[in-house]
Amino acid sequence: MVQRNRGGGILPVELCGLSVICIETELIRFVTGECDEELVKLKFEEIGAMVMHSLGPGLVVNYGDLKLLARDDASIDSCRYIVSKLTSLLEVYHVKLWLIGWVERYEIYLNVLNRFPYKEKDWDLQLLTITASGPPKEQTFSTSSLFAFSCFLLVKDL
Questions:
Q1: Residue 154 in contact with residue 116, Cβ under 8 Å?
Q2: 20-40: per-residue pLDDT in tens?
Q3: 127 contact partners, CB below 8 Å, separation of at least 6
Q4: How far is residue 45 from each of residues 40, 52, 74, 94, 124, measured CA to CA in Å?
Q5: What is the pTM of this model?
Q6: Whose CA is closest to 21, among 123, 101, 124?
Q7: C-alpha 104 chain-centroid distance
Q8: CB distance 77 to 22 below 8 Å
Q9: Spatial distance between the Cα atoms of 74 and 90, rounded to a whole number of angstroms
Q10: Which of 5, 79, 123, 153 could pair with 128 in a Cys bridge, judged by C-beta atoms 3.0 to 4.6 Å apart?
């Protein structure tokens, strides 16, 4: 939950009390066949209930890495189901629900838009480029100490 900062915070005061839920693990398990549609359906119903009963400004759903929808081992029917359910949630709870995720490379983003051409408009996605001056901590690169790592944060307009 986003909490009010006593000092000069960087987030608008309207976001105080905003809840965040991450569903990336459930979505990965679903598109790779590790869990069935019923479990994912229950998760989406839980999200709907959380938004309906939210006393704060709403809920941010973190769907994680967008490449999930472009994976070769992902079931296209499962991916369509996910996009359909997230789109439905946005249509019903558009005032109190936001989506957030990320993608490492713009090419992956374009791949996903190829598969789901209306997603960018339906989800009102905004690309925010994030660049780091070095590699993620778990990776080491021997060729150079300077490494440009970029990812694109995808959010439904707040």
A1: no
A2: 999 999 999 999 999 999 999
A3: 109, 152, 153, 154
A4: 9, 11, 23, 15, 22
A5: 0.76
A6: 101
A7: 13
A8: no
A9: 23
A10: 153
